[in-house]
Amino acid sequence: MYKLYAPDELKHRRNVDQVKLSDSSILALLIWQAEIGIESQRRFCSIFVGLSHSRFNRRARMLLPLIRCIRRAWNQEVNTTGELLIIDSFPVPLCQPVSNYRVKIFRGTADVGYKATKKIYYYGFKVHAIVSDDGYLLDYAVTKASVHDSKETVELMANAHPSSRDLLGDEGYLGRNLASRLKSMGYVLWTPYRRNMQGVKKHNDHQLMAIRRTIESDFSLLSYYNAENNRARSMSGFVQRLEVAILAYNMAYCLDRFN
């Protein structure tokens, strides 16, 4: 991957031939860390890496543009089988709920939002993601935890430019305004109706609802790669760890599907 996708300014930077560990080795170690589920980078470095924690972090952050290049290139190369896209979000808590209003990390960048699955409030971020109906993650966006799902949808779709035109969402994406804005971009949004809405029995196609729920399984797999347990203490570190988790997840998808 490094040989195929690394930009020249990274490959040929000053003194690159004198580093103790190559960039490709750092990338492999990052993916391996996500695969074996070690959340603490300090612990991972002390056991496996052979570099100090601070130096490994600096080297890892240098590879963030490369990891993004790999993900975007794969989006063009991976031919997903289905014609539907699924959009949803998952929370990334930064502390225990008891510390929601005392924690100082990312103050002003993160905030308090509601985690509906566990019916609790949490402090942190929310990751909005577009996933193919067979599980490949195409693109994502990070917002404050309080941002409603529907508010990020239009910008996320505009940045991703997916070829599939049919989009499935949950009840959080209900609304004529969002549907009309997506329609003007060429996308058709389907969401289930709430139980008290007129025509709910006719509209709520159980097959579409079952397909949409597959994204919950995808998010469970992402949490295995520590996408929801991000211990970074800087925004660049946060994004780098999230990108590594998504890369490891998509690699597992490709290995499983294309052998």
UniProtKB/TrEMBL annotation:
One matching Pfam family: DDE_Tnp_1
GO biological process terms, semicolon-separated: DNA transposition
Domain Transposase IS4-like: 82-251
GO molecular function: DNA binding; transposase activity
Domain of life: Bacteria
InterPro entries: Transposase_11 (IPR002559)
Name recorded for this polypeptide: Transposase, IS4 family protein
